[in-house]
Design brief:
This protein is globular. By secondary structure, it is α/β, with parallel strands linked by helices. The protein contains ten helices and eight strands. Helix 1 crosses helix 2. Strands 1, 2, 3, 4, 5, 6, 7 and 8 form an eight-stranded mixed sheet that branches.
Length: 270
């Protein structure tokens, strides 16, 4: 397999990547055949996966606009992935010129491509780090340069927590991030769940198994389990709901059934 010029030499292009599969679902070009093969295998069980990812991006844009409308001008996007249309900084800076955004991901392709795309924007930075190690994120030079710890921050954990196993204590990581941010900070997240998928769980489980096979297990949590991530936050209306139902721009009943395959919510600290 020929290595594209944009692919860092350090990565193994024969191993599928979650962020590159996501890029493929969204119609992007920063993925390899191995990623496309894995994504197509998952789609054999859940053909609506691209609709899920589109709904996820739609929520992200609506939530960022909400945060900007509430006066929040600092955004920390952990698990940001490969840049796609409607990135956080594009939405935030359109609403509030000068809004600052720090993108965080542990995938080398996502980090390298993000740095190329965002080069020249002094209000945007990219950090190579992992949600599982929040202190490395909070202590990074990029966060220190762009994020004022005395002002509220919008923390985005969009489609990332379902890749962190309970044994790695994602609740503790989210709590550490919450405790480090100023009062009035906002948490916005999405998380996959069997509860909204328009398929029998055993059928949807075939797609989950694909992620397990590529050593990136997809952890399907219940609504109650997802709600635990909002401990210490006051939920913003309409609460924790299927993605299309969070402050929709269009009628939720017009959405593809697969768009309801994850929960979305926004909370704010006092």
């Amino acid at each position: 397999m020929e290595r594209p010029a944009w692919a860092p030499r350090s990565i193994d292009i024969t191993v599928p990547s979650v962020s590159r599969m996501y890029d493929y679902y969204l119609g992007g070009s920063h993925n390899f055949e191995v990623d496309r093969q894995a994504a197509r295998r998952a789609m054999e069980f859940m053909p609506g996966l691209p609709k899920v990812m589109q709904a996820n991006r739609g929520f992200l844009r609506r939530a960022v606009r909400f945060a900007a409308g509430e006066g929040v001008t600092q955004f920390l996007d952990i698990g940001s992935g490969i840049p796609a249309f409607g990135n956080v900084h594009e939405v935030a800076q359109a609403a509030v010129p000068g809004a600052r955004v720090v993108y965080v991901d542990h995938d080398p392709v996502a980090v390298a491509h993000s740095r190329t795309v965002f080069e020249g924007n002094e209000d945007v930075a990219v950090v190579a780090a992992d949600l599982r190690k929040p202190q490395e994120i909070l202590g990074s030079d990029e966060v220190g340069r762009l994020i004022d710890p005395d002002r509220p921050v919008a923390l985005l954990l969009v489609a990332v927590l379902h890749f962190v196993d309970d044994a790695e204590d994602p609740y503790a990581a989210v709590a550490q991030l919450r405790d480090a941010l100023a009062p009035g900070s906002i948490l916005m997240l999405t998380h996959a769940s069997y509860e909204g998928i328009p398929l029998p769980p055993e059928r949807a489980g075939g797609a989950v198994d694909v992620y397990k096979d590529i050593r990136n297990p997809l952890i399907m949590r219940s609504r109650d389990e997802i709600a635990r991530f909002f401990e210490g936050y006051d939920m913003v209306e309409p609460g924790l709901v299927p993605m299309p139902k969070w402050r929709p721009d269009t009628a939720p009943e017009d959405e593809d059934p697969y768009a309801f395959s994850a929960y979305a919510g926004v909370g704010r600290t006092a």
